[in-house]
Amino acid sequence: MAMNESFAMILGIAQDGGHPHAGCHEPCCQAAWKDPSLGHQAACLGVCDPAANVRWLVDATPHLPAQLHQLEAASAPGLTGILITHTHFGHVNGLGWLGQEVMNLRGVQVAAPQGVLDELAKNDTFCQLQNQGIIEVRATPWLEPLGLGGNLKATPFPVPHRAPGGTAAFLVEGPNKKVLWVPDADTLEGWDTPLEKLIDQVDTAFVDGTFYSADELGGRDMAEVPHPLMKDTLETIESWPGRDKVQFIHLNHTNPQLSQASEGVPVAQEGAVFSL
What is the pTM of this model? Predict the structure, then answer.
């Protein structure tokens, strides 16, 4: 499925651990353990300008090998860079695949806000990748467009989330259309740039849908892992002019909408392609 125009591709819609989830023996994961085709990869967006031979991933998940392969199959081999939203496990752990032990790449750009890069610099593996020339670090100042090569650019917006170093939502822009990628947030309120205004600027917005309701984690205190509940988000955006642009990503393995989305619940589909 080779493409000639710039596009974004959904390469994963699950929370950091994917689906089925490690150590989960509950009904939500049983079918996917038996049939891997029913599973889902961790949330990741591929962005590509085939004419300029430019390919980026938004976040480096544990499923990076399969996700990169899927993006390359839709364009051509190669990885230009990776945009990092924040430092939590499922968004940076895939960087190790780039190293000498596996792909042994050179000069892959890793771009993120300075606070995120400062946190990553505390990690020995990240420093090793940088020292060996496997990755080249680029700071992305808040609210400033970053050229990705070709006709693509990405702008980071700060999002309230508990990750050290801060958390970014990325507004990715091609020559004709724009998409917003927000895999993690603690709340939809209190943003420097309100989410409603960001959605007004784009054609499609992919938004944190980790949990559908507060009873998914049994006795665990939801305050430890705050996320806007999907059912509450649907109510919040109901009056927004851009509500039809929203699709949910980053669904936890416990979220019933991951395996069978209810009518009226817009869950993003892995493999879906959006023209930029």
Answer: 0.96
